[in-house]
Amino acid sequence: MIKFDQVNKRYPGGYQALKNVSFEIAEGEMVFLTGHSGAGKSTLLKLIAAIERPNLGSVLVNHQNVGVLKSRALPFLRRNLGIIFQDHKLLFDRNVFDNVMLPLQICGFDYRESHKRVRAALDKVGLLKREKSNPIALSGGEQQRLCIARAIVNRPSILLADEPTGNLDTEYAQEIMAIFKSFHQVGVTLLISTHDESVLQNTNARVLALKQGELQA
Amino acid sequence: MRHAFDQNVGVLRRMFASKLAGIFNILVIGIALSLPAGMYVLLQNAQGLVAQFSGTPQISLFMSMDAKAEDVDRLRKQLEQQPAIASVEFVSRAQALEQLKQSSGLADVIGSLSQNPLPDAFIVHPKPGGAQALEGLRTELAKLPGVEKAQLDSAWAYKLEALLKFGRVLVLILASLLSLALVAITFNTIRLQILTQREEIEVSKLIGATNAFIRRPFLYFGAIQGLLGGIMAWLIISISLLLLNHQLVALVQLYASQFELLSLSLGDSLTLLLFSMYLGWLGAWLSVARHLSRIEPR
User: Fold this and answer.
1) Which residue from B minimizes the CA distance to A106?
2) Which value does ipTM take for this structure?
């Protein structure tokens, strides 16, 4: 599903974020990406969504080399991905419901169908009662769950999460991990980055450990 | 389709959220457009006036007061031989007096005259030709024996026509400049809109929005703003003409005449609205093309 082959990413200015990273994630697999901040976790995720491009090596998503995709083709790659951003990237000029609606609007979904899907996604993350609220009124954990709802409303086959439990207390973090596990059970491919090793304790998922841009064996 | 519409309505509602700024924009566009369009309306009216009076040009040949019947016959033969003349019409002194009595409402004054002050006259209808050919014919006819005075009736109309041509060029220049201003206004408004919606654009791109999807509401906004500006211009012109006509009616009544300024025709009105809509769209398109590509998610 996702394959990195000898991937190098160097930012302008010379900072080497990733060095010779190679790995493969099978369809339906749930994989954790660990490492200290600055280890290159976010960069790795950005390469998958083609937000950044590799300097060397290839990034394959669904057998498609996303490093060389034309910008015209990018939207259609991203519609297959659900991305949960570290900084949430919620829009505060509209309510919870409309935030989740956005991906469906972008794909041009049918009106009735999209309303159903938004409600289903909000229900999944336990925010159905807050659909009229402005995201600014939500707690950190709720904002994170809203971001998840927006990422899954489109029913993507791949879910990327960048520090989804970043600044949440353990209880919230466990709630969110439980949501991810339920996606894993229905066959979604997940790649979750975290610097918090404690979330890995009661899971047998594969772990990719990054250290200063290099994948640890 | 319903959905796409819904989405655009949502975005447009957010864009039109700052009402006062929007109204001022529309007002500026309306005033900018109403200047050339208003001048155009006045020109159209003047042109209608010219057409009404000039019709086909004719030359009046007045004979001397002491002309005899044989002088008239001789002149008629000479005129009929002229190749540049289509037809000739003779108006005798008596006929002329009769016509004057009927048309001017001065019957009493004319009736009190002891003798007919009018000369015999020929009305010459020349074959179609330019202003210069007509003037040449007039000087030629003036030299014929027995002709006291040759008058080109539509001379003033030609002068007015030349003035109108000048006016049309002026309108064209003004229209071009102010159209440019309209495009610039929209360009700037859209630039600000893009900046304020930077976040939404970034997020949309991240979750798979195509450039066309992001561009669309801005183009709609530009077109709608242009259209509203056009409607504003139309209102400005219509109300101004209404006020002018009110005074004009009082004025022309003093001259026992009837004249009314016509407003924009249906076709002209539609052209005005479509053109302003197009200019708004163009300004938005230029702005979007320039500014949207710079917003890439990081």
Assistant:
1) B209
2) 0.88
